[in-house]
Amino acid sequence: MPGDAAVVSRRLLGRIRDVMAKPGLPEDRLNVIVRCIAEEMQAAVCSCYVMRAGEVLELFATEGLRKSAVHQTRLRVGEGLVGFIAAHPRALALSDAWSHPSFVYRPETGEEPYRSFLGVPIVRTARVAGVIVVQTIETREFAPEETEALETVAMVLAELLTAGNLIDRREQIPVDGTALVPLRINGLKLSPGLGVGTAYLHRKVPFVKQLVGEDPEAEARRFDEALERMHVALDEMLAAEAIGKSEYRDILEAYRMFAADRGWIERIRLHISGGLSAEAAVQRAQEENRTRMQAVVDPYIRERLHDLEDLTDRLMLHLMGHDPTERKAMPEHAILVARTLGPADLLDYDLSRVRGVVLEEGSPSMHVAIIARALNVPMVARVPEIVGTIGAGDPVIVDGDNGSVFIRPSEDVSATFVATVKMRREKQKAYATLRDLPARTKDGHLVELFMNAGLLADLPMLEEVNADGIGLYRTELPFMVRADSPDVEVQTSLYRSVIDAAAGRPVCFRTLDVGGDKMLPYWQNAGEENPAMGWRSIRITLDHPAIMRAQLRALLRAADGRPLSVMFPMIAEVAEFDAARRVLDLELTRAERRGEALPSDLKIGCMLEVPSLAFQLPQILARVDFLSIGSNDLAQFLFARDRGNQRIAERYDLLSPPFLSALDSIREACDAAEVAVSVCGEMAASPLDALALVGLGFRKLSVNGPAVGPVKATILSMHAEDAGRLVRRLIGGAEHSIRSSLAGYARDRGIQIP
Ligand code: PEP
Ligand code: MG
């Protein structure tokens, strides 16, 4: 490509702009554009393939190949070089196309004389809309700048193909005419609960009309100004009272750092110097980001790319002169619909109106999902094409329990859900009347009901449901949302806020439990084949004692002479507990030496979630003040059943002879040793499971906040000794599950199983 690539790219874009400015049919314009490209890039051939229904790429326009091949030559995705580019999707530059393994020869095109090949995908909203190719007779090494120039042109073509309706949309929803029928679409459940309301489309970025920049310098200036405005707005958001010292701050800090990412900013500047308008340059960077996102499996990087996507939208709105935080009137019962939501977005809304959230993308560990769970907002993600399918104001139901979204539901469906929501609300009200009653069974056994938490935002619920304390405080979230490990000061202030918010009720802090699916950005997972059984949790913190020390130091400081309870996760053998305990002792000695206030009462325990520890019970019970059974991980390891694998999620039941027998023998040993034992995994939060646990003699459960009421209702209506006799008899048998027998028993005895 002769001359400066940016100059050629600008000249080419200038010519394309002229073509687009004149009236004409999209196909005619495409013919002129391929000719311009061939001329400017000094190539004998330029062809444009367009994606048709059934994942087929059809030759739509060519300069240099036989015209008779237009609409005749078709390649499936993955077939030939064009299909290869669409499948990956990324640029491919070859000095000798014929020697590439994917090359297929199509005689009807007359492409025998052409040796070199450069092709790039035409991508629009993360979907391949076509492929643009140049070919030359001579053997030519294409320079990276030439690829860059062709990619810039491809972006303009993406708009032309979409605006000209050249892309076959038969497979995409909405299809005119069917857009108004009721739809049920399944997605990924990210936050439980039911939400009924009307669709509110989250900040839709307007269509970019001006793709080609007249004056790159002026465009670069506009970009810089918009970037500056965005930074100021983010700073203001961080300074806001509500963000104050909450954990959201960490999320937003990481996000703001991203806004200053040089690589991202430089890419946009490069696109502007290549001739795109500032908006088109931002859009192109966004397309690149989306394409990258599809290829990334690492959940942490995917989340970061989600954040970047959100920033790009904000930047785009600043560029277009809109205020991204400005909200149109939101319906009173709103279902927020978006492609994806940035961590700050949900908090920006009036949460008293948001009944649910539906996203086109997302993963369970994305920040907005963590926040939605903490705020009890039902959320379903990975709902294909949702933004295009739902119209603002459409009635929508989000079923976060089953991962379904009902759009424009029929009256029957609506009525059923409205009734369920109403019933749940009434039940919640009924639970409120149980708030001040102790959780005592009919035969007089008192059960302590604790709450699990992991966010400051969970704490107000402690008072609301009147739980006896926090039985499990998961400390990993602030570690997961930051770019580096939070220091002692940050941790101290956070833990202090937690202890303050608990207002005298005990809080059991679990030390860092990361790894497995909760990998931290700064400790790279070495691509373990079996991360759930890999380098995680206590294994990481024992290998990095400085991290454990910093956390324990922060906990001791936060307690500041008040009672403190600490437990270590994933302990597999007593020696591991001893090693962790030694680290705690070092910190206690240090604090004492420095004259710092020691906890008035220090309780030290560990989780039992690795089966091996159950075979060392006498030794561990001699060392701990309490034991907490993590039924989620314990079941994973006892049944050899990956807890994240949906395929086998229902295969084994925790209400089964092997699992309940294991729990019973652990409880028995604890009682004999007079060591407090609790169950803090998800099973304790299920009323029927809680019935079995209390029957077996467990007297301390720790459950998520909303489950406190329902579990208490079960306890109040049950007879522990009687239930225990039944459960013991059933687990002596050989059934796969005792669930239905137990449910029948509860029904017969009038035990409340909500
Ligand atoms: C458990 O494993 O049961 C548990 C409570 O810990 P987590 O779910 O955080 O792994
Ligand atoms: Mg666990």
Give a brief rundown of this model.
Among the domains are: 5-170, Beta-Lactamase, CATH 3.30.450.40; 216-319, Enzyme I, Chain A, domain 2, CATH 1.10.274.10; 433-445 and 644-679 and 681-754, TIM Barrel. It is built from 26 helices and 22 strands. The strands form 3 sheets. It has an 8-stranded mixed beta sheet with strand order 7-14-13-9-10-11-12-8. An 8-stranded parallel beta sheet has the order 21-20-19-18-17-16-15-22. It has a 6-stranded antiparallel beta sheet with strand order 3-2-1-6-5-4.
List keywords for this structure.
eight-stranded parallel sheet, Beta-Lactamase, elongated, 26 helices, binds phosphoenolpyruvate, Enzyme I, Chain A, domain 2, TIM Barrel, eight-stranded mixed sheet, alpha/beta
Q: How would you describe the overall organization of this protein?
A:
This protein is an alpha/beta fold. Strands 7-14-13-9-10-11-12-8 form an 8-stranded mixed beta sheet. About 2% of the residues have low confidence. The chain is elongated and about 90 Å long. The relative contact order is 0.07. It starts with a helix and ends in a 5-residue tail after the last helix. Among the domains are: 166 residues, Beta-Lactamase, CATH 3.30.450; 104 residues, Orthogonal Bundle (Enzyme I, Chain A, domain 2); 123 residues, Phosphoenolpyruvate-binding domains (TIM Barrel). It contains 26 helices and 22 strands. Bound molecules: phosphoenolpyruvate (PEP) and magnesium ion. Phosphoenolpyruvate binds next to strand 16 and helix 21.
